[in-house]
Structure formats: C-alpha cells, structure tokens
Amino acid sequence: MLQAIIFDMDGVIVDTEYLEFSLQKQFIENLKEHDRPITLAEQSVVVGKCLSKIPVVIKKLAESSLPIEEIRNRYYAFFHEIFSTVDFKTIFRSDIQKILLFAKQNQIKLAVASSSETAHIKNILTVCGIIDEFDLIVSGEQFEHSKPDPTIYRYTCEKLGVQPQNAVAVEDSYYGMLSAKTAGLAVIGYEEKRMLIDQSLADYMGKDIGEILEIIQQLYSKRLAFENV
User: Fold this and answer.
1) How far apart are CA 54 and CA 36, in angstroms?
2) CB atoms within 10 A of CB 131
3) Quick check: 147 and 48 in contact, CB under 8 A?
4) What is the pTM of this model?
5) Is residue 164 within 8 Å of 187, Cβ to Cβ?
6) Residues 54, 77: Cα–Cα separation, whole Å
7) Which of 16, 94, 190, 221 is the most buried (most CB within 10 A)?
8) What is the Cα–Cα distance from 174 to 180, expressed in whole angstroms?
9) What is the pLDDT of residues 137-189, one digit of tens each?
C-alpha cells in the first residue's frame, strides 16, 4: 500500500542536475591534461553523485595531476558560484504541487531524500515555496555514505514510520534508483534523455511530473482496491 512518497530533488523537483552538468564540461576542459575529447557518456558518470564524490570523477576524466583537495576546493567554489546566481523558480517543476496536494488529500507522507547539502536543499525548497509541504527533509551529508548506499532511504522510511515496501521513490539517476531499490522501495523514474543515464532500475517511468502523478494515483488506487478486498 502507498503510504509515503520520497522525492530526490536535483533533476526531479528542480532541473538543477542538467544545469550543473551543462556547465561542468568547461570546468573539466580547464583542468584537462590530455587532448582527447570528453564524451557525453564519460561525463554522465557524475550524474546523481553527491557533491563530495564529483571531484574524484573530474580528476579522473581530466587526467589532472593536481591534488584531489585542490580540485575539490575549485569545484566547490564553482558549484556555489553557479547556484548563488540561479533563479530556482525558473527551473522549478511546479506541477509537483499537484502531487503534493494529492498526497495531502489522501494522508500520504512526503519527504525529500537528496544527496545534496542540507543548506542547498532547504534553500531551493524555500525559494520554490514548498518546504513546508514535506514531513521530512534528509540530506546525504547526514551519513557516512550517500547514494547509491541505501542508508538514506532506510533512514527516511524509518523516520516517516513506514515500511520501505509501502513507499515509492521518485528518482532520475542510476545511483538514486539503486539506493531506493536496495532499500526495498519501488521507484518511479523521471525520464531523462539529455544525459546518458541508466534508468533501467525504475519500476515505472514518467516523461514529466504529470505522468508521474498519474502513476502515483494508479498505485494509490491499487492500495484502495487491496484494502477493500
């Protein structure tokens, strides 16, 4: 039965994943110590990784001789510069409010479980005007290991008071889907074609928030039918 909906944030609630991905290319080019072009498939490895893990991937892609701490410091500065100037309302998938309303009307609990930093999550949700809609907000920085480790989803379900099999995760990245699936949740994928992401772990797939709402409504209807048997 459907008792909770747990959202990833970047790439689902707001289109920040692709924004960061688009600007990463020049960052990598500036560090690159080889003449080989970075392919879309190679760069796509960063999608869904927590902020602390991205510099490791970038160092490998650039074959940079710089110490990892130097790359990390540069990338963190780059990251915060990007998102200090973004108007998140312009990349907010506002139709999500229909899902939030449906959940409230049917006593379905709501949470955000994101690999991003807590301050980043809360800032975006506040700017978009939906922070108060969630029963729980969880950041990957709260744990030793973030996605694809399942701990973040297990913790979120425990705090919500629901069993993983009674919750659904809305994710766009392979790492996020793997985290949720390993924790025992069903996964609704937000279809992404601009980056090369393996989304094959999704149990259901929606091309946009409207389709995801339809899937959630169908899952809830199945719950009602089961309870009335």
Assistant:
1) 20
2) 15
3) yes
4) 0.91
5) no
6) 13
7) 190
8) 10
9) 999 999 999 899 999 999 999 999 999 999 999 999 999 999 999 999 999 99
